[in-house]
Predict the 3D structure of the following.
Amino acid sequence: MVEFKKGGYYMPMDRQYYSSEDIAPKLEDPITPISHLGETVPESIGGRNIIQTVQGAIRGGASTLQLVGMRQTPSVVTGPGAFGARYGQEVRQALREVISSAGPEVNIVGIEMPTSMNNFNGMTQRGFSEQARKETLSQVKEAIKFVADINRGGGVDMVAFEFQRPLWKVEEYAGQKGVFDIASEDKFVNIVDERTGELSGFRKTKTQFLPYAKYQGKYVHFDELPDSEKQKYIDKQTGILQPQRFEWNNFVEWSEIENKGKSAPERKAPEELFVEKLNENQIEQSRGVLNQYRQRVLDAERNLERLNRDEEEAKQILSVGNDMQKQIAKNELNRIKIERPQQQQLLEEYRRSEVNQLQGIKEAEEQLGSIRALEHYAPQISAKSYAEAGISALRETQQLAAQGKLKKPLYVGPEIGWPDYYGGHPDEFIQIIKDARGKMVKLLTDPKSEYFDHRIKPDEAKKLADQSIQGTFDTGHLAMWYNHFKANPGESEDARLKRFNKWYLEQVDKISNAGVVGGIQVVDSHSGEHGHLPPGEGIFPVIEATKKFQQKGFKGFIVSEGHDEEAFGAGRIRTKLWERMGGKVGQGYFGQSAGWGHMAPSYFGRTYSPKFMFGSYVPSNDFKLWSEVPLE
């Protein structure tokens, strides 16, 4: 049946023969230009150096590049992340020329620091070290200068492996109880002495017996209970108040009760409360022992005084007494001579013990105010480091602007980490950035701060902090939570995945709404393991997640980190992102933008063989079939 088109009947060679719907179907979602969809580029791989890897990415069609720092051996560089220190003037100039010669749209959006730099708080195996923190900060500052030098702007991110923490801790403070499978986890609790940075801890299974009881919705000391209530806890045989057994859950509930209505700095974590009560119990016991030694010291001092009096009396008898009295006095003096050193030694021992007990009490009292939960202590140091790095980024931005060379502001921030580390959960990731921004505002506006700038008002400082500290969202790192996502009884794997992907997108909404992200690394996986499949080649909604950011006005960079399938087709790291994001690949013959659906005949980036012949395999035009039907 002949179909007549509106406006007349056209021949195939007529431009009007093809409608816009035939060339490129109308899409409801906004299309991101390919120039804005880039890729991560390792600074060195397979014997190629940083200039060669950048050139290779640009020749492959990428115009948005994020450099990825690689772990360096000690023989190559003193520190694992001294990115900028590894490249001299000629290499930097060559990079600038490669970028500028490729066109104005080609730029390096920033650097991901080597993963060997796994925290920004100075945490080492021995505890927290200010020297280690400053060394890391120095390397990040060098990277900021490097980006400023070669591209006149961009970001520096570091994967947030701030410290290892169990998933049951996430359940406690993220309000997601029952979401993760924590049955096999080690129930160990870490604490930090903020005076020294030393780490210690205990297991959740440890219990205490305390003179406390729950009364009227609160935990109170026995002394505060009314007499009628005390009777519940008195042993009938001894008539003594019996301390109550307190387990970890009791301390969790106790801390929740005490934290109601308090601001974050005033809140106590369960482990802080646990150690506080442990120390209070130790102090009480030590005071009891101290009182015993105090009594012994007093007794020894009285015994010495008695011996002194007995000695004076014996000496008087020797001078005025008869022979029998004098003999008794001599015996008494001999006894005193033997007993006095003994009493003197006892007095010294009791005094030393008294001092030792008092010392233990003082140390326990001082520790009461210095023990911090690891989740309260380490993130604040990380926030300080990011704030100081943010100020360095701000100063580089101001300097480039003054020179008329600034392309875009410089910034620094964390990249969402893995589930096993603080910084891997969306709540933690967001909190690190918000705390860092708040700290940067304080450093810029506090007259006592070494970074104080009287020209910057609080409102402006907040805008500068938001600009200078931004995070990087790695879609693959969030997908790793699938390994820990608890299955419902009798649930199939497909159903669990569907439920996880719903949770995944809810977390994406949370992150995108927070306004803390400056760049997205789009990477997929076929499991909850750490993988780098091209976008859309795995089982997670990474493309939908990226589009959620765009729908909310996201203006940062988007790069693919899916390099695991390059062996199946060079450039899949970028072409799959272009395809899945619906990017246009150019103008068709009839002036319409060609989508990926119209690129099939070219098999650009295909991993399998075409179903038609092309190139030298096509028969000559001189060859004809007996039927003279032309070959296609």
